[in-house]
From TrEMBL:
Protein name: Uncharacterized protein
Family affiliation: Belongs to the NDRG family.
A Pfam family this chain is assigned to: Ndr
Superkingdom per UniProt: Eukaryota
PANTHER family xref list: N-MYC DOWNSTREAM REGULATED
Organism this protein belongs to: Blomia tropicalis
Amino acid sequence: MATSLITVDETKEMENVKAMGDQQQQQQQQQSPTSATNPPLVRIGSKEAAIVTRSIKINDSIGEVKVHIQGELDDKKAVFLTVHDIGTNSSAIKEFVDIDCMVEIRLRSVFIHVDVPGQEDNANDLENFPTIQQLGEEILLKILDELGVQLCVGIGDGAGANILARFGLAHPERILGLVLVNLVSAGVGFLESIKEKLFARRRSSQQLCSEEIVAMHKFGNSHDDAMKQLIETYSNNISKINGKNLRKYMTAYMNRKEISDLSNLDVLLVVGGRSPFVHGVEHVYSKCNKQKTSILKIDNIVDVISQCPEKLAQSLLLFVKGLGFLTSLQLPGIQNDMGMATMKANLAAIGRRRTLSMEEYDIPRMRRLSLTK
């Protein structure tokens, strides 16, 4: 039976912090007549850092890749490396990180959001686009080396999850754990072969528009009202992405090679119960080491990140606690429920180590001494 990672001392500390926060909030409410209806967010002893954007040159062929560093790189902070799906860019995962219930994680972490080459807003046409294998095995490594980051937790969505899985397999010493949303490990399958035929048929006459590419990739052949509503939410982001570069990303993903065994990595697989990727994710899970892998499947959901971010945030925290990160945190605004009891036990057990002291609670496994050089 898995036990909680939170010690008695940690619980007392959190109660004290909450009491201090409540006292400060009451004082602010007395000073401001509008605070009763719109209470300010109380942050004790810390503040959020500005986002810094850097362009990192990979090589002469690929050129530069933009990364957005959310938080200050610090060897005492948890480091998350994020890679986005087709039809989006780094802003999609950043929107998830920016939700209210993620505030405490943000304050004690740094997020490195990667824009896949040519997918940043208003990018110029790319002459050469890397393969999915190159993105995972070479480009992400170059980024971490350039930033001096030795160890991170990966968060990837769709094609980004595939890229991060390859990075973890090629460089397991640089990955503490992976949160992979909508991961499909196999190469081109039946549904994707249909998509490829459609690409080939239409290349001779007209190009697929960006919205069609994203719709086929994310939603398959389903076009009910929920799917259409999700497409509308993507439209603003899609309009900012270079259509030629988006098609190159899609083509590279279609031509990917199959991913080998993930059983040696600590992994949280995430999928919506109505997602077209659900069977692919379940297939990946069936081949994984159940001692090191958990799956979060949310019923009646297509896109977990946009439709159910709070539950994903809760599962993310439980997962990284099991890896030795952020073990004293609780997420504000999210209540624990009985339906999460089994998930909590499973996620906390992944990568479990001894209970941490207050001095150690944010430091990862001691076999890897630092997050940055």
